[in-house]
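Why this split exists: single-chain examples teach little about how molecules sit against one another. For that reason, every record in the complexes split bundles all components of an assembly together and asks for one structure covering all of them. Below is a record exactly as it appears in the raw files.
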Amino acid sequence: MDKINILIIEDTPEEATALQEVLEENNYNVVGIANTYQEALSLFYKLPIDIVIIDVFLDGNPDGITFAETISTIPDTLKPFVFLTSSIDRQIFERAKLTKPYSFLLKPFNGLETLYAIEMALEKFYDQSNVFINDHQDTIISECYLFIKKKNALNKVKISDIIYIDVEDRYCNIITKQEKFVIQISLGKIKELLCSKTFVQTHRKYIVNTNTIEKIILEDNLLILEGNHQVTFSGKYKETIKSFTILK
Amino acid sequence: MIKKIEINNINLNKLKFFCFLFLFNLNSFAQMNGINQEIKNVIKKNKKVDYLEKTYEFYKLNKWDSTLLYSGKLLNVTKRKDLLDLAHYFRGKSFLGKKIFNESLKEYNLISQEFYFYSYVQCSIGEIFLNQKEYKKALKHFTSVAKNDKTLSSKLEKSVLLHNIGLCYFHLKEFEKAENYLLKGTALQKKENDTLLLISSYMDMANLYYEQYKDNQAIPYFQKAYALSKKIKNFEIKQNAALNMAVVEENRKDLTKAMLYRKEYDTWKDSVNNQNKIWAVAETEKKYAISQKQKEIQLLESENKVKVSQRNGFVASSILFLLLFGTAFYFYNQKSKTNKIIEAQKEDLDALNATKDKLFSIVSHDLRSSVNMLKVTNTKLLKDIANRDYDALDKIVHKNAAITNSTFNLLENLLHWATLQTQQLYFHIESVDLYSVIQQIEYNYKPLFENKNLVFTNTIPKATLALADLNSLKIILRNLLDNAIKFSNENGTISVYIDDKNDAFYYLIIEDTGIGMDEETRTNLLKEGNLLNKKKNQKGIGTGLGLQLCKSMIQKNNGIFTIESIENSGTKMIIGLPKYKSNG
């Protein structure tokens, strides 16, 4: 599990520092702090960023909104962002709204509010609402990462690192190359959101990353995966495996 | 009506003037007295019969045409024999009056013999025959009347009858009989002293004798007639009497006298002519008067027309005026209405302005006192630092934190109030997790709870999703929590929980175990627009702005707000927010 990378765009050093402290206390990784629009743009495209926190006003101008507008023009590289503002001026809000504000954070804010805003931004950006506030779920699935909330800390797991998933009721055991952990997500949702080419259900219980399959033992209904993990496949899903083998 | 009959006698070569002073008119006149009374009685009895009375009226006035018209109508209407007879009688009389003898005769013949005035009818028929020179027929009728002479009421009538019989005989050249009857008639008339009739009778007598060349007997009658004629005013009779005398004197070869009589005759004739002329003049005058009247009528008509047009003009102008008045009234009404509205608005504005001013003064007063307190504590702080009294320092800093916190809250509320009032507040309703919102707010209040040693519990289940605008909801909850803390006693409890009544709302309850409030305060707090109420238990900062802001914002969030409170045991602030229904 990795920390989530955050870019802060804030022109007031004290506030930037305070925010950084809050984020790092809560297991976030602040990869950079930009003071100007230009700096923000260069950092945004240079660093591996998961979430951007943007102050609406940079040096008295609403450059924060301009930045959001700029990154929104390229949807592929767009990341979720949170607006920081001390103004409740409707005109600013209306303009910010046009950039699809994934979350607002009204100054002054406390740590909890910051975390909530970040979570909200993620939920909205990946269109999987009300995940983190729920007791039954704690994971958002994006193209490359699983965003997993453990207690109050948010982490991410690279999807390509997953070897297989062992489903048990509402819980899923995620087995990656490095570790093993439990997330709360329904089987239906995980199947829907994970790329169906890469991930194939081989058994009522198992979803396997096909990239990690090393051996298929048909007579034993057994798959040998990377890291010497063994996963059975049931007759029901045998055909899938066969076609898969042929393809391979 | 004078008929001059010239008889050329071969022997005497005399000019004889028979003056039939026709007794018709007189006759009719005489008859009327007797008969009219009877007719009146008949009419009185039959008042209800249409046309009867009218017919009689015209008959009395000798308006023959009208009489004919109405009697004709009467004939059509009635079927009673006596009335039919009466109608025929009227018609006969009318035709007689118009000298249409044959028609008159027909009408008379239609009258039944039972008719009360049958004798009069026969008299009339006799007169008609006399007029038509059918003397024998006339005589027959007259004699039949004479036999039943009881029906003839007056002596005059009898005398007339006798006279007529005499005339008939006279014309039939039965002079002896004629003399007999005429004498009888004359005698009767003498008794009655009817001069007119008497003169005629005398003249007829004279003619009778004269015809028989009994000049000696004739002349005295002529003279008597002439003498009597002087006393009367009837020009025609005077004229005839004079003419007769002239003829008599001429025959006696007394030419001078004859000339005198002739002259007198001429004068009477002239007077008759004069009278005629006067009549003619009167006639023309009448015509003139009529034309004058006609002109007047025309004038009046034109005047009427003018008046009508004037009246129309007046009506039109009055309608126009009314319309004008109506529209004027309408506009006046409208104006006064708008004025009233403006007046009301002005009052409202004045009230609002007054509230605002008051708010200003209170807010500035509050700010002033809290800032002043900070100033004071700061100097104290400096002192303590100088004295290195760190225990006191800690206390003061905590105190200052509380002061700045409440001041900040006041300013925050003020700002939100202003933005709300100017519609500048960004407002976006979405699904909000009440649990995490409370948690986020609690995070800031932890030191405050600890200050008063309050126990705070949040028992809202996770993922309680309501529909609200997050920022305004936070403002609401902060204010309510502030209140809860303010009115809580030390070591009290503040609990936040949800009451799910299974309707469309989540009821978020903030309950404290504080001093509570009485019913009056409670209702006052819930009243619309009740800013700046004087509150009991007033200690620190409080303008009523906070609660007012809460009410406005809850309303804007489509929520419900109520307060339940028990004095000295606690208050429940209840916010109902619409539930969020997820699609998945």
